[in-house]
Design brief:
The protein contains 24 helices and eleven strands. It is an alpha+beta fold. The strands form two sheets. Strands 1, 2, 3, 4, 7, 8, 9, 10 and 11 form a nine-stranded antiparallel beta sheet that branches. A two-stranded parallel ribbon has the order 5-6.
Length: 564
C-alpha cells in the first residue's frame, strides 16, 4: 500500500484573497490589451504628456537656406544647390531658395534650369529686388535680351539703390554691344555698393568686351578678393591672363585655384591644359587635358565649341604624333557638331484656332527639357498650357506685379476677339518628349489628344540662344494617343582647325591615307576656301577632283596720273 502526503486545507479568508487578486490581474490584462488594440480611448494626462518622448521635428526650410548660403560662401556650389533644393521640397512657397539656387545654377552652366527657378521666385514674390535682378541675369544668360532689359529696368526703377540691378543691366548691355551703357551701369553699381562682387565682376566684363584687358583683369581680381572661394571668378580672370595678356604663369595659378575649389569642373582642367600648351609645356598640357576628360568626357565650351578632345588632338598634332591626333580629333568634331541638340530648351505642341481675325497657331502642350537620370538624354514632361482672358490692367499695378502675373501658371492671355476654350479641351492631355543627342532622335509619347479641327498638330522645339524651329506635324490616333519620331539632321560646325588638322594628320603619315584625308580637307574648304586655309596644302599631297577652284589673287594696276 502506498501512501501520499495528505493535502492541507486552505482557509476561507485565504481563498477569497487569492480569487480577488486573480480577478484584478485578469482585469488589468484585459484593460492593457484593449488599450493596445485601440478598443479603449485613454487620453494621456497633461502632466504625463510633458514627460513623454517627443517626435523628432522636421528641420525648417530656413535652416537649409542657411546651409546653402554657408556652402556658397565656402565655394561648395553643388552642396549649396542641394541644400537649397531641400529647402524647396520642405516649403515650396518660399521664394528665397529658388533665387539662390538660380544664381548658382548659372555658375554651373545650367542656365535653362536657372531661368526656371528665377521665374518661380518672381512668381512667388515679385517685390524682392534680389528676385528681379537675378531673374534679369538668368534671362540674359539664356539670350532673351529684350525680356532681360524689361526685368532689369523694372528692378532699377522700383529699387534704385540695389546695386546688383545695375550690375546685371550692365551685363545685358555688354552682351548686346552697347559698351558705353554697360560701363555706365557697372559704375553705378559700384557707386551704390563697392563691396558688391557682381558689380566688380561686371565692370570687368564691360571693359573686357571693349578690349581693355589690363583694366578688366583688375576688376576680375577685385571680385576674387570679395569672394575668394568662388571658382568661376578664377576662371574668368585666368582667361584674360591667358588669351589677352599672355601671362601664362598667372593664368595657370588662377586655373589651379579654380580646380582646388571645384575639382569636378572639366572646364578648369581644360583651360589649364591649354595654358600649358600655349606656354610650350606639352607634357603638363596632356596630363591636365586627360584629367578634364576623366571628369566629364562630354564637356564642350558652348561658345567656342572647343573641348579637351580637340585640345589634346592639337597638342599631339603639334608634336607630330599624327596617329594620336587622328584618335582624338573625330570625337572633338562629333561633340562640337552635336552641340545644337545639347542646347535644347523647350518643346511645344501647337494647334490652329479660328478667331475673328483669322486662323492663329496656339500652343496647347508645353515642356521644359532637363537631363535624364542617365546623364545623356534630355526629357521634357508635357503639360497643358493654361489660357485666360486678358485682364484689365490696373493703373496701380507695378511692373513687378505684372511680371509675376505673366509667369504664374505660364498662362497665355487671349485677345478679346478670340474664343478658345483650350484649357478645358486639353486639360487631360499629357505626354513626354525624349531627345537623344547622340543620334539626333526626338521621340514624343502623347496621350488624350482630341482630334484637331483643321490642320494636324505642329511640333515646335526651342534651342539656346533664342531659336525656335517647327520640326513636324502629326495626327493622333482614334484613342487620342500618338507616338512621333523626329530626326534632327542639322549639325553645328566644329572649329575649322579641327577639320583641316585631322585631314593633314592623315596626309602627313609615313604612308599618307588620302581616302581619309580628303573628306576632312574638303569640309574645311567648305567653311573657308580662301588661300590662307592650310587645307590647300593637304590637297597638294592628296589631290581631289572635287576640290574647289584654287583662289588666284587678282592683280590691280596702280593708278597712273592722267594728262591734264
Amino acid at each position: 500500500m502506498y501512501y501520499r502526503p495528505q493535502e492541507k486545507k486552505r482557509g476561507a479568508l485565504l481563498t477569497f484573497l487569492l480569487y480577488t487578486l486573480l480577478t484584478v490581474m485578469l482585469g488589468m490584462l484585459v484593460l492593457l490589451v484593449g488599450i493596445y488594440v485601440g478598443y479603449f480611448n485613454i487620453e494621456t494626462p497633461t502632466l504625463a504628456q510633458q514627460f513623454a518622448p517627443t517626435p523628432t521635428p522636421t528641420r525648417p526650410a530656413v535652416l537649409y537656406v542657411g546651409d546653402g548660403d554657408t556652402y556658397f560662401a565656402q565655394g561648395k556650389l553643388n552642396e549649396a544647390i542641394a541644400a537649397y533644393q531641400q529647402a524647396i521640397e520642405i516649403d515650396p512657397t518660399h521664394d528665397v531658395p529658388y533665387i539662390r539656387q538660380s544664381r548658382l545654377l548659372i555658375f554651373t552652366r545650367n542656365t535653362g534650369r536657372a531661368l526656371d527657378q528665377a521665374a518661380q521666385a518672381v512668381a512667388l514674390n515679385p517685390n524682392s529686388p534680389e528676385n528681379l535682378a537675378h531673374y534679369c541675369r538668368a534671362l540674359d544668360w539664356e539670350a532673351r535680351y529684350a525680356e532681360a532689359f524689361d526685368v532689369c529696368g523694372c528692378a532699377t526703377e522700383l529699387y534704385p539703390t540695389y546695386a546688383e540691378g545695375y550690375a546685371f543691366l550692365s551685363e545685358v548691355y555688354a552682351d548686346t554691344g552697347n559698351w558705353g551703357a554697360a560701363q555706365q551701369n557697372a559704375q553705378k553699381a559700384l557707386d551704390l555698393n563697392f563691396q558688391s562682387m557682381d558689380a566688380h565682376h561686371n565692370m570687368g566684363y564691360a571693359l573686357e568686351v571693349q578690349g581693355r584687358y589690363p583694366e578688366a583683369v583688375k576688376f576680375y581680381d577685385n571680385a576674387i578678393t570679395l569672394a575668394p572661394n568662388l571658382a568661376p571668378l578664377y576662371i574668368d580672370a585666368g582667361r584674360i591672363y591667358q588669351n589677352s595678356l599672355g601671362d601664362y604663369e598667372t593664368a595657370a595659378e588662377r586655373f589651379k585655384k579654380a580646380i582646388k575649389l571645384n575639382p569636378f569642373d572639366p572646364e578648369a582642367y581644360d583651360l589649364l591644359g591649354w595654358t600649358y600648351y600655349l606656354n610650350g609645356d606639352y607634357v603638363r598640357a596632356i596630363n591636365a587635358l586627360e584629367q578634364s576628360l576623366g571628369v566629364d568626357p562630354n564637356y564642350v565650351n558652348p561658345f567656342r565649341k572647343e573641348s579637351a578632345w580637340g585640345h589634346l588632338a592639337t597638342v599631339y598634332y603639334t608634336r607630330q604624333n599624327f596617329e594620336s591626333a587622328i584618335e582624338y580629333f573625330p570625337k572633338a568634331i562629333e561633340l562640337a557638331e552635336g552641340e545644337l541638340l545639347r542646347r535644347v530648351r523647350q518643346v511645344e505642341i501647337h494647334t490652329e484656332t479660328q478667331t475673328l481675325t483669322g486662323p492663329t497657331s496656339r500652343p496647347i502642350l508645353r515642356g521644359r527639357f532637363s537631363r535624364a537620370a542617365d546623364g545623356l538624354n534630355f526629357v521634357a514632361p508635357l503639360q497643358p498650357v493654361n489660357y485666360a482672358a486678358a485682364p484689365t490692367i490696373e493703373t496701380e499695378q507695378s511692373c513687378a506685379d505684372l511680371l509675376a502675373q505673366s509667369i504664374k501658371g505660364e498662362t497665355l492671355l487671349l485677345d478679346p476677339t478670340e474664343s478658345l476654350t483650350a484649357t478645358q479641351i486639353f486639360s487631360q492631355s499629357s505626354g513626354t518628349a525624349t531627345l537623344d543627342p547622340t543620334n539626333g532622335n526626338l521621340f514624343l509619347d502623347l496621350q488624350k489628344l482630341p482630334q484637331p479641327q483643321t490642320t494636324p498638330y505642329e511640333i515646335k522645339v526651342s534651342f539656346w540662344p533664342n531659336r525656335t524651329d517647327s520640326v513636324g506635324f502629326f495626327q493622333p490616333q482614334a484613342d487620342g494617343g500618338a507616338q512621333v519620331n523626329i530626326k534632327f539632321e542639322e549639325k553645328t560646325l566644329a572649329p575649322i582647325e579641327y577639320y583641316y588638322q585631322l585631314g593633314l594628320a592623315y596626309a602627313y603619315l609615313d604612308n599618307p591615307q588620302c581616302e581619309q584625308a580628303i573628306p576632312w580637307l574638303l569640309k574645311a574648304l567648305e567653311i573657308d576656301s580662301s588661300g590662307y586655309n592650310p587645307a590647300w596644302y593637304g590637297l597638294r599631297i592628296c589631290p581631289s577632283p572635287h576640290s574647289p577652284p584654287t583662289p588666284i589673287p587678282t592683280w590691280t594696276p596702280e593708278p597712273t596720273d592722267q594728262p591734264q
